Amino acid sequence: MRFQSLGILGVILALGSQSLRAQATSANDAAMALEPNAAVLERGKAIFRLNECNYCHGIDLTRAPRGARADLKHSPLVGADENGNLIGLAVLNGLPMSQTSMPRFGDVITPDQLVDLAAYIHFQRQAERYKELTALPDRPGDREEGKAYFNGTGQCTTCHSPAEIAGAVKKLAAPALKENTLRPTAPAAANPRFDEGYRAHRKMVERITDDEFLNLLAYLNSLRP
Amino acid sequence: MFVELSHPHGKDSQGTRIIMISRRNFVRAAVGGLAAAALPRHAFGMEAAFDRNARIGGLDFGVQTFSFNGLPNGDARIPTIIKCMHQVGITACGIQSGHVEPPGRTETGWWITDRNLPGMRESRERARQWRLTVPSSYYTDLRSRFEAEGCRIDYFGMNFNETFTDAEREAELKAAKALGVKACYASIRLDECARLVPFVQAHQVRIAMHNHNNIHDPQEFGTAESLEKALAMSEYFMVSLDIGHFTAGNNDSIAFIRKHHDRILNVHLRDRRKNNGPNTRFGEGDAPLAEVMRLIRDEKYPIDCFVEYEYGTLRTPVDEVNACFDYCRSVLT
Fold first, then answer.
1. Would you tell me which residues 122-141 of chain B have a C-beta closer than 8 angstroms to some C-beta of chain A?
2. pLDDT at position B103, please?
3. Count of domains observed in chain B
4. Closest Cα to residue A105, out of A90, A124, A120, A86?
């Protein structure tokens, strides 16, 4: 087993990783767990815990004990982050102005660790946001706003033409559309752009707000014949 | 309720030996704390726990219930806290209102950032109504529950803030009295201290200011100066000095304790690095933990030492709190 070389720490990490994998319930989730890879996530999770992030940002980001601004699950900064470039600003410098200052981790977290840490935070945020978005109550969204999101903020048109999307929508019932929009399933015929698209969708799950998602669904559903 | 204390194998998951101790013996030992000296050291096969209850190196120790993170909500919470205290073998605790009140921490606006949340006004009002209508027996019962298990609540953590009404400020001071604590401790701002002055005078309840390390906002307790301003406001204002945070704000704990020892009720023991650095295991950061404990011992200051464990780990809180106490013992003996 690959953890053996890590000794006790490896055992603890292996235990921890079960909960990460436990989130992978379908083949599609398994695909999701492929990137970033499990070893990176396990390292990231350990860094998160060993540096006490969980005290203020919640175990696995599931709660934010230090208030709304410490909510990494919804923070726009984390949503906009790429490989730790923005998360690192907060982590390495700390945030001394907050009521209970976030400590400065510049002396203890290395650049490599930061990348793993960010990967874990993103993965966890995607998993948590996915749950939240799919559980949203069926409030009607604004179709026009949704269209604007599709063509603008969401950058959906970089990969999908409106016609292609209309074709996909026709085949999918509303609940499936909701899920596939968040997590595309691999198409029957190999799509060379699948990995790239998959990553783009993961980012979307992290960045889209509840309202934007409901609006987007209203727009997509309006494309049904 | 029966609290399971002894692990069947006498080992925890990491293979460390855990103290075998039956509940009855524990209570006997804890209640009879003063008689400790007269009893043979191994009377209950629980030397470690026993020492902690009595005193370590002549100091009075306790634990902040904050240390036991990940506590369950609802009815299971208090028994879990007590169980953790038993597992650590410590009698006294400082308990935060969030561990005592049914309304969650967020609802009471514990952190500044919570107070602007949507829906906050309504949930804050619900929390307020709970506080204004809860009978004092709620708190006396709570006290009894701890005592029945050989434990004690010495300090009650209440973060007074601008969302409190005066009626609520009074209600919380009365709650502190019903709990029978030595004092409240509070992560609080100077402007709120000013509002509290008439109430602490009227109810004669002490509030010990708990510092963090925001040294940029003079209203926050991050420096000696800000704490001194509060001390000047009322003789009922005291200090609960967090050594770790004080160090992270590059303040001198030893100098502060020497100067204000008669106004410091307890120190919160925690280690951190300077320059707003992170928490560390005891002894690995820049906080003068050993020096502080020895100073209190040598000068015989009546200052309690409360462990507040909050550093990153992959082990359980009970394991880490145990490690903290082991450190304290090692530098005092």
1. none
2. 74
3. 1
4. A90
CATH number for the domain harbouring residue A130 = 1.10.760
Exposed e or buried b for every residue in B286-319, given b needs 16+ CB within 10 A?
A: bbbbeebbbbbbeeebebbbbbbbbbbbbebbbb
Residues in Cβ contact with A29 at an 8 Å cutoff, skipping those fewer than 6 apart: A23, A183
Q: How many domains would you assign to chain A? A: 2
Mean pLDDT for A115-141 is 93
Higher pLDDT, B75 or B32: B75
Decide if B251 touches A, using CB distance below 8 A.
Answer: no
Residue B22 lies in a domain: no
Q: Do B82 and B1 contact (CB within 8 A), yes or no?
A: no
B126 in Cβ contact with B101 (< 8 Å): no
The range of the structural domain enclosing residue A56 comes to 2-134
> In CATH, what number is assigned to the domain containing residue B177?
3.20.20.150
Checking if the pLDDT of B12 tops 60, the result is: no
**Chosen domain end from A77, A110, A134:** A134
- B12 contacts in chain A (CB < 8 Å): none
B14: in domain: no
- For B224, other C-beta atoms within 10 Å of its C-beta total 20
* B102–A contact, CB cutoff 8 A: no
Range of the domain at B99: 50-332
Q: Which residues of A touch B (CB under 8 A)?
A: 8-9, 12, 16, 46, 49-55, 59, 65-70, 94, 96-101, 103-105, 107-108
Question: Is B145 or A36 the better-scoring residue by pLDDT?
Answer: B145
ipTM of the complex: 0.74
**Same domain membership, residue A126 and residue A72:** yes
